[in-house]
Amino acid sequence: MYNVKKSIKLGIAPIGWRNDDIPEIGKENTYKQILSDAALTGFSGTEVGGCYPQDPAELNKELMLRGLEIPGQWFSSFIIRDGIASAMNAFEQHCAYLQAIHAYVAVVSEQTYSIQGIIDKCVYTEKPNSATANGSFYAKDLMRLGRLPMRTG
User: Fold this and answer.
1) Does residue 2 lie within any of the structural domains?
2) Is residue 17 part of a domain?
3) Which CA distances in Å does 73 have to 43, 63, 97, 118, 152?
4) Quick one: CA torsion of 118, 115, 38, 73, rounded to 10 degrees?
5) Type and span of the H or E element at 81
6) Which residues of the chain have pLDDT under 70?
7) Strand partners, 108
8) How far, CA to CA in Å, does 13 sit from each of 68, 74, 81, 124?
9) Does some domain include residue 83?
10) Can you tell me the distance from the alpha carbon of 67 to that of 129, in angstroms, rounded to the nearest whole number?
11) How many CA atoms lie less than 13 Å away from 45 in the CB half-sphere?
């Protein structure tokens, strides 16, 4: 018999406490507070937030204390700006970190033309369209990036 409670885990994004794109929002919330709140409200875990430690041993300790897991983490690629070699190197490091914290999901987003954090641009009228200028080139490189975790485990 199918048991939903054993099959589905519910996590939450730390952006509800602290915003990585606009650091002033929620800067008083520490990663330990975020993890504690998530555990107390019954979540199974969170994705990695920008304020989380880069030391896997430190994060794993705090997760274990609260019975939480990390399913994954956001990865900002800059393939169009920096090239695939640079992105592959950064993503390889990202995947190594994910392995060290027992996470299995990398959420990849190309950020070359992102205007996040730029306050003098309008997101509706001044947002560049990277697909029209670089679409097929970017798609091939993104596929190369996507194959990397299969090689590293």
Assistant:
1) no
2) yes
3) 16, 15, 10, 23, 17
4) -130
5) helix 79-82
6) 1-6, 127, 129-137, 150-153
7) 75
8) 13, 10, 28, 25
9) yes
10) 42
11) 22
Query: How many distinct structural domains can be found in the chain?
Result: 1
Tokens of 101: 């914290």
Find the length of the chain: 153
Range 91-100, long-range pairs (CB < 8 A, 24+ positions) = 91/145, 91/148, 92/148, 92/152, 95/148, 95/149, 95/152, 96/152, 97/54, 97/56, 97/73, 98/72, 98/73, 99/152, 99/153, 100/56, 100/60
Cα separation, 113 vs 22, whole angstroms? 17
Cα–Cα dist 68/118, whole Å = 34
Residue 22 · residue 119 · CB < 8 Å: no
Do 105 and 71 contact (CB within 8 A), yes or no?
A: yes
